[in-house]
């Protein structure tokens, strides 16, 4: 359960609407032993936006369970270097009380490249 201390301050809606949030399909998952915290290197197909890669701390999922999974990602935040790896999008998920990530999932009818808003 979230307390009022965990809530973020109000922000301008333009900040949200400036993000490009899309449906992607995971096409590859690799171990990422160079990362400080356990993580995978994930490549995802975002349809017309292309195949992008990210580093994601979602090792509570077996790699084979992630393969071909539909995800939700923010694709216009720029590149970030993580242990020498260029992360190009942010995969979205929620955190449970123990800190485990639960990936957000679009409806089964969604296809890579669909916009989320």
UniProtKB/TrEMBL annotation:
Domain of life: Bacteria
Key word Magnesium present: no
Entry keyword RNA-binding: yes
Domain TRNA-binding: 15-117
Record-linked InterPro entries: NA-bd_OB-fold, tRNA-bd_dom, Tyrosine-tRNA_ligase_regulator
Keyword entries, A-Z: RNA-binding, tRNA-binding
NCBIfam families: PRK10089.1-3
Name of the protein this chain belongs to: tRNA-binding protein
Organism of provenance: Streptomyces luteolus
Lineage of producing organism: Bacteria, Bacillati, Actinomycetota, Actinomycetes, Kitasatosporales
